[in-house]
Design brief:
The chain has a three-stranded mixed β-sheet. It folds into two domains: 3-159, no CATH class; 166-201 and 265-495, Orthogonal Bundle (Neurolysin, domain 3). By secondary structure, the protein is mostly helical. The radius of gyration is 22 Å and the shape is globular. Helix 1 (3-30) packs antiparallel against helix 2. The longest helix is centred in the N-terminal third of the chain and has 28 residues, at 3-30. Helix content is 64%, strand content 3%.
């Protein structure tokens, strides 16, 4: 057996363990009874340690070196080997006891977060979250020393390989300067329009669920390899060829759940479209979270808030809820789904104010990882940031710093990929429409095939064959360019308003 084949087999077994972890984590977040949380935490910790041990097997260093000397490897094998070395380098920076401690802390903190969020009780979460943060700092330092990165960049690298906070700072500072004036201009334009009639509920949960399933099918979700469920915070998870997405329902507002479903379906289409021949190998994984978030935001924001999509959706919505009248016409729905108004909840934010939510979280988590502010001051820092960036202050912590699961679940360094993803989504959608001018007409007819087909060729089916900048440049003809995102916002919210 060649060194490369040995590595390929080994990482195939690691992928199988990751699949088991993915399903256990999904069950933890969706169906598991509260009383099982302690034992589940132990199970997750044990499997994380097992996976870590497999990834740091002492044999791997020599095998990787031997495989790298093999001149007979093809393009995909070379890229797979590059990804194997990247993963091995990062994982060998961490001792097994730190991996286990982090897994236990995260499992306990996630459960505490659900209760604290419901009660709007940050002090109740503080001890558990402090332990997660302490361990994340240890992880960040260990990885940073191995990679020659700052602690925060070491965490960012897990979600955005090659990403650096210095580059993100420039992009986000530019957006933070651009968005307030642009938002004010859009809102002033909206204020001059007559108010749209309300979409009156209630909207039964079962009807919303059926609508979500119908829209998932329209976008191209494969129900033989996935499902839709309910969770406290919408997410896409599961395992290879078993993609689980979730949403949450409000009988007074169907739009929140529907847009959540469309967003998570974008993630799921990426997972279901990854290269089948490489599914269990590192090169077959999604490239990184800015690309992953671009797929969800491309569907939710770029495609499904367009006039074309809402022309298709309007009669479907009227039929689903048994409604009619001016509020349910396509143009009224377009105005409603592109209405800009600062709000407290990130996942319900409009496309224009959404980046401010991400910039806030990014700045706070950088400060916390660097130990530049006490965790106890998180609610005050959050509220001050909301006031500065969006001009509003949450009335309680449930609508403020407790709304997201990312920090309790150990997802430090993740948040900036949302806005990087929004910019990437605009660039990919623009390139897709230039390559196939019939995409919007197809969407107006409820056919996402041309758009998804383009994404399969230029993003999904490539897995991690290319590094993120090369993937984007190959697909769009240029590296990440914020001007494309700004032009999109201007066109949709001013030129077409």
């Amino acid at each position: 057996m060649t060194a490369y084949q040995d590595l390929s087999d080994h990482f195939g077994r690691i992928a199988a363990v990751s699949d088991a972890l993915g399903i256990l984590q999904w069950d933890n977040d969706v169906m598991m009874p509260v009383g099982a949380s302690a034992r589940r935490g132990e199970s997750l910790a044990a499997l994380n340690v097992l996976r870590h041990g497999m990834t740091t097997d002492p044999r791997l260093g020599d095998l990787i070196a031997s495989a790298e000397a093999d001149t007979g490897l093809g393009v995909w094998e070379r890229a797979n080997l590059r990804e194997i070395r990247r993963i091995w380098t990062v994982e060998t920076a961490l001792p097994a006891d730190l991996v286990a401690a982090s897994a236990r802390a995260v499992a306990a903190c996630e459960m505490a977060w659900r209760q604290a969020r419901a009660a709007s009780d940050f002090p109740a979460l503080l001890p558990r979250l402090a332990e997660v943060l302490r361990l994340q700092r240890e992880i960040a330092v260990a990885k940073g020393e191995r990679l020659g990165l700052s602690p925060y960049d070491a965490l960012l690298n897990d979600y955005e390989p090659g990403g650096r906070s210095a580059d993100i700072d420039l992009l986000f500072d530019d957006l933070a300067a651009f968005l307030p004036g642009f938002t004010a201009e859009v809102m002033e334009r909206q204020a001059r329009r007559p108010a749209d009639p309300p979409l009156e509920g209630p909207f039964p949960v079962e009807t919303q669920r059926a609508l979500g399933l119908r829209m998932m099918a329209a976008l191209g979700f494969d129900f033989t390899r996935g499902r839709l469920d309910v969770s406290t915070h919408p997410f896409c998870g599961g395992a290879d060829d078993d993609v689980r997405i979730t949403t949450r329902y409000d009988e007074a507002d169907f739009a929140s759940a529907l847009m959540g479903v469309l967003h998570e379906t974008g993630h799921a289409l990426y997972e279901q479209g990854r290269p089948a021949a490489w599914m269990a190998q590192p090169v077959g994984r999604a490239r990184g979270m800015s690309i992953h978030e671009s797929q969800s935001l491309l569907m939710e924001m770029q495609a499904c808030r367009s006039a074309a999509f809402l022309a298709f959706a309007a009669p479907v919505l009227r039929e689903a809820f048994g409604r009619s009248g001016p509020a349910w016409e396509a143009e009224a729905l377009r105005r409603r789904f592109t209405r800009v108004a600062p709000g407290f909840i990130r996942v319900e934010a409009d496309e224009v104010t959404y980046p401010a939510h991400v910039i806030l979280r990014y700045r706070i988590e950088k400060a916390l990882i660097a130990d530049q502010m006490p965790l106890s001051e998180l609610p005050a820092a959050w509220n001050a940031g909301m006031a500065a960036l969006l001009g509003i202050v949450p009335p309680n912590d449930r609508l403020g710093c407790l709304q997201d699961v990312h920090w309790p679940s150990g997802g430090w360094g993740y948040f900036p990929t949302y806005t990087l993803g929004a910019m990437t989504a605009a660039q990919l959608f623009d390139a897709a429409r230039q390559a196939d001018p019939g995409i919007m007409e197809a969407i107006a007819g409820g056919d996402f095939g041309p758009l998804v087909g383009w994404l399969r060729t230029h993003v999904h089916g490539l897995g991690s064959l290319y590094e993120t900048p090369e993937l984007l440049t190959r697909a769009t003809g240029r590296p990440l360019d914020a001007s494309v995102f700004k032009a999109h916002l201007h066109r949709r919210y001013l030129d077409e308003a």
